[in-house]
RNA sequence: GGGCCGCUAGCUCAGUCGGUAGAGCACCGGACUUUUAAUCCGGGUGUCGCGGGUUCGAAUCCCGCGCGGCUCACCA
């Protein structure tokens, strides 16, 4: 067996990273590039295991990261991980010869190698590859976290997601599921005739939602720009333009707090359908979510954080007013503004001096009802005060044709029959501008061009927005939004 | 931003009343030709998050700071 002649001092090195770095010279001295190049694989680990009946005795080549090494003197076992899974490799001294077998003993856990050999099943029944040759493809210079407990330190997991992905298979599964969910959203909408479009991320006016924006600066134009807080207003301009059915899956930026449910940048899908209304949006929402669940999980009955949730359509529909009345016994819309404020205060809710009954209703819903709605539910007919872009009800101008889909105690989607009356829209913006003047820096900004677009004529339109990250959390049973975002925002170290 | 909790070896974690820092995995050396958390023998590899303070002596007690987690506020 070969000795580590060029790196005789490896044994004296305390630091494992130093030991691994010293091995670079070992591989070079054997004519092997420790950072190799192209390698042709014939199979994935999964293909060999699934196709064992046909592959037994056949020669295959695979590549991947060494995740375990079990040496038995003149025989060794390695576990090789690739995207599809893991497979065991069995190496024998008498099959490889002194030199090759000696080199194999210098492989470290974490190294990426290519392997060729014959498929067989061990005495203990494990499908394996009997090694006939191997190639160092990439020498790993840092030790991996422990094989049994994995990597738990969430700080390292989020900052160094690549390590998390190497050692925690369930993390990789979560992100693969995320990709499937996004694909399912696309296929569902494409099939229904929606056009996927891309609208600007940098806005002169940040509109379409109630949120604080990030500000950036364009040097050549010498102007401040906002990162978008919604895709809504541009998508509706496209409906004005006659595109009729559009959607955008896009990154949204909101300059607000970070929590288990909030990341400063997140992904939404917004869709708009001409000649539709919010009832159509309810049908789309429940079927879109059910489709995503089926594609990603194969089922519409799921468990989220210990709660059984049935996403099978149709979902119950209830007005906000009725939901609040059932839960609290208070019928806000039958009260005067003053009585409504009193009712809120008796519930322990802090409402502003001139809060309307609609604002009180909304407050009572958010504080007293929303968190208790575990099964998917459509909460309909939001007050106009909190819905500046939604069409008002023809039978009650204090309410709008707006709903939110709620599930697991939180908002999943928000939708309405779009306000297409430019005169009304201008008044709503003006009311928001007054709120801004009063210091509400989350109130909507006046967008003159959007009103101009409406003046050209927006057909009656239904629109819906859904938080993709929240949907992924729900379908992957993730407690934190950081578990479904590959690289969540973290404060820099030091 | 407020409150609570955490930070010790590469990783997962112990660490008593303030008395020279310790276990598993990983790693290094040795044995072992079908193991699989391989096994057996030997080896502890450390800026106890950082900076001050108290003390003869601090991982441990006190103060400040940093980063993270949970939570409240805000929001999707």
Briefly summarize what is shown:
This protein has helices spanning 16-29, 45-50, 52-55, 93-104, 154-159, 161-167, 169-191, 232-240, 278-297, 320-328, 337-346, 357-368, 422-437, 448-457, 468-476; strands at residues 59-71, 75-82, 85-92, 112-121, 127-138, 195-196, 202-203, 215-218, 223-227, 245-253, 265-274, 301-304, 307-310, 317-319, 377-380, 402-407, 410-417, 461-467. It has 494 residues and is of the alpha+beta class. The protein folds into two domains: 2-144, OB fold (Dihydrolipoamide Acetyltransferase, E2P) (Beta Barrel), CATH 2.40.50.140; 167-316 and 375-484, 2-Layer Sandwich (BirA Bifunctional Protein, domain 2), CATH 3.30.930.
Architecture overview:
With 494 residues, this protein is an alpha+beta fold. The chain has 2 domains: 2-144, Nucleic acid-binding proteins (OB fold (Dihydrolipoamide Acetyltransferase, E2P), Beta Barrel); 167-316 and 375-484, BirA Bifunctional Protein, domain 2. Helix content is 34%, strand content 24%. It is built from 15 helices and 18 strands. The strands form 4 sheets. The protein has an 8-stranded mixed β-sheet with strand order 6-10-11-18-17-16-15-14, with helices on both faces. Strands 1-2-3-5-4 form a 5-stranded mixed beta barrel. Helix 7 packs across helix 15 (468-476) and helix 13 (422-437) packs antiparallel against helix 14. The longest helix has 23 residues, at 169-191. The radius of gyration is 29 Å and the shape is elongated. It starts with 15 loop residues before the first helix and ends in an 18-residue tail after the last helix. The relative contact order is 0.09. Mean pLDDT is 92; it is low at 1-8.
């Amino acid at each position: 067996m070969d000795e580590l002649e060029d790196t005789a001092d490896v044994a004296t090195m305390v630091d494992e990273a130093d030991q691994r770095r010293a091995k670079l010279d070992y591989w070079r001295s054997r004519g092997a590039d420790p950072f190799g190049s192209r390698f042709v694989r014939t199979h994935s680990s999964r293909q060999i295991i699934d196709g064992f009946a046909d592959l037994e005795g056949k020669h295959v080549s695979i590549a991947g990261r060494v995740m375990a090494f079990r040496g038995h003197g003149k025989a060794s076992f390695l576990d090789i991980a690739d995207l599809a899974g893991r497979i065991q490799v069995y190496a024998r001294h008498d099959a490889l010869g002194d030199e090759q077998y000696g080199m194999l003993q210098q492989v470290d856990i974490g190294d990426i190698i290519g392997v060729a050999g014959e498929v067989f099943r061990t005495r203990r029944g494990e499908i394996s590859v009997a090694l006939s040759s191997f190639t160092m493809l990439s020498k790993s210079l840092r030790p991996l976290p422990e094989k049994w407990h994995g990597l738990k330190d969430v700080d390292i997991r989020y900052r160094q997601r690549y390590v998390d992905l190497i050692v925690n298979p369930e993390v990789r599964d979560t992100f693969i599921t995320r990709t499937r969910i996004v694909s399912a959203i696309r296929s569902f909408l494409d099939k229904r005739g929606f056009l996927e479009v891309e609208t600007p991320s940098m806005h002169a006016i940040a509109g379409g939602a109630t949120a604080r924006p990030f500000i950036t600066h364009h040097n050549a134009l010498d102007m401040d720009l906002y990162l978008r807080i919604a895709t809504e207003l541009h998508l509706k301009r496209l409906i004005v333009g006659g595109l009729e059915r559009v959607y955008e899956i896009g990154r949204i930026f909101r300059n607000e707090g970070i929590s288990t449910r909030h990341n400063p940048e997140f992904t939404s899908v917004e869709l708009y359908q001409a000649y539709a209304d919010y009832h159509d949006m309810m049908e789309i929402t429940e079927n879109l979510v059910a489709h995503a669940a089926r594609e990603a999980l194969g089922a519409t009955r799921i468990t989220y954080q210990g709660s059984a949730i049935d996403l099978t359509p149709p979902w119950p529909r209830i007005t906000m007013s009725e939901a609040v009345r059932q839960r609290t016994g208070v019928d806000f819309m039958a009260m005067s503004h003053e009585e409504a404020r009193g009712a809120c205060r008796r519930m322990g809710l802090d409402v502003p001096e001139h809060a309307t009954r609609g604002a009180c209703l909304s407050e009572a819903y958010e504080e007293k009802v929303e968190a208790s709605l575990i099964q998917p539910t459509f909460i309909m007919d939001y007050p106009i005060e909190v819905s500046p872009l939604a069409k008002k009800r023809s039978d009650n101008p204090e309410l709008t044709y707006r709903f939110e889909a709620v599930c697991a105690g939180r908002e999943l989607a928000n939708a309405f029959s779009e306000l297409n009356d430019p005169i009304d829209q201008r008044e709503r913006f003006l009311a928001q501008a007054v709120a801004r003047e009063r210091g509400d820096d989350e109130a909507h900004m006046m967008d003159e061009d959007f009103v101009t677009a409406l003046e050209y004529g927006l057909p009656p339109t239904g629109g819906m927005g859904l938080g993709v990250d929240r949907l992924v959390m729900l379908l992957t049973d993730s407690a934190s939004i950081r578990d479904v975002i590959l690289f969540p925002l973290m404060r820099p170290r030091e």
